[in-house]
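Q: What would this complex look like in 3D?
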Amino acid sequence: MYDVIIKNARIPQGDETRLTNILVKDEKIVGFLENVDNVESDEVIDANGHLTLPGCIDPHVHFMYHGFPHRENFLTGSAAAAAGGVTTVIDMPCCTVPSVRSVEQLKLKNDLIERQALVDYALWGGVTGEDVRNDWLDNVQEQADHGVVAFKAYMTPSVPTFPRVEDPEMYEAFKAVAETGLPIGIHAENFAICDFNVKKLEKEGRMDGPAWAEARSELAEKVAIELGISFAEDTGARLHIVHMSTGIGAKLVKEAKMKGLDVTSETCPHYLTLNYQEAMTEYGPLAKIAPPLRTKKDNELLWDGLNDGSVDFMGTDHAPYEIESEKLKEGMNIWNSFPGIPGVETMVPVVVSEGYNKGKISLSKLVDILSTNAAKHYGIYPKKGAMHIGSDADFTIIDLDKEWVIEPKKQASMCGYLPMEGMELKGKVAKTVVRGHLVYQDVDESILSDLTDKELEELVHNYPEGVEDKYSEIFEQYPDLYSREYLKSYRKDHPELIDKHIRGMRGITAKPGFGKFIKRQSIQVLPKKLEF
Ligand SMILES: [Zn+2]
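A: Here is my prediction, written as structure tokens for the whole assembly.
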């Protein structure tokens, strides 16, 4: 007797597929059977012969909770993941109040988000210039011991609660993280170059969208990656370049791998499909991100990088902002609007449509870059990222033939904009399964539609009982855990819009709180596989 059978699943086997049925017991895969006519189970999920991947992973999201609830919360962010076929997200440490740089902050964050999560999640730890200056680097090993998968550091200013590292501070951070055996992910843009160019172009009176991309130049990313590689070589740290946007970046990472260094990289769907000249002209602040969109040539070089192994896997840098107060507010322009776009909901379909379906990448590459490689790199494989006996029964079921158009206003993310608006895709997520439970299917109905005002009040707008007492020291420092941006936001004055949005999300079949915190299982190093 099994708990669930995933029927008619077309699973990848290298670059071929095989039609089978997947048996699930206690939320794990326990077998594959060609014929299940006489096999009993409590539940059947029909994959309808669709491609069924091991659950896809977005290892780079900013769900903005708690601290920036006008942008997203963990319920809407993880609903967007579910709708996008993402069964595990790895949330960044920076876009919360307080940011995550100690175990206590990590625990507080987990207490606030776990009741909202719809898919499984792991967490990044953090290290900042302030931690180096104040001699707080003991927190690094403590966070590692508590199950974070990696550490994030910023070379450029991003969130006020997560100060950037100066170059020598970054060196100290590398040394501390190297001792844990975990990767250090850097936002690789040289701050001095970016700052100088932004001021220069602003002074010249440039107000067009592309000016942002020209200011945050390719050179700024190049020298930042070069510095990171030098520090990695010197300290033995495992360097990971997050959201790498340039072809030159892929080349540098490849060379570092060839030298035997533990250097890895990820890129995002927008760096593979959009270019700054078109998208930033059309969308202005709504296409503003850091690092910025690049050129068509970079799109192609990054696809090449995925194929030759210099780009290891996909992430999205999902970072939604509020249109009314942070993107298109009166008086805002390309310089003072906030940089960030969403992505967790469209990563899988964009890579399937523009990569696999167009013949740019093979099936085995698709599985590696959307699921397996990130799981290995962050030490959660083969619990996640695999279709083995004993792996969690996480599946992304994709209708490869379904044609559809991206409509940001219909997305589960609260964001409401995306410079991929109107993009015509072939390939859509049909069902998302986490630990053998259906969490999303491509229909209009959702079990969240009848959440009451009171339930939403408790789930989204209030702290769980006891949290304020338990973390009284943190609450003393940050009395209500809200950012200044939240206090100036539109949704602060219209919290009912958040409720309305949650009730209007489509296809969700899991209850908030279903998603689990996945601690890093072990330290694993992704094997270097370069193609020549
Ligand atoms: Zn990011």
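A: To summarize the key features: The pocket of zinc ion is lined by residues 60, 62, 92, 243, 317, 319 (CB under 6 Å). The CA atoms of residues 145 and 390 lie 24 Å apart.
Q: Very helpful, thank you.
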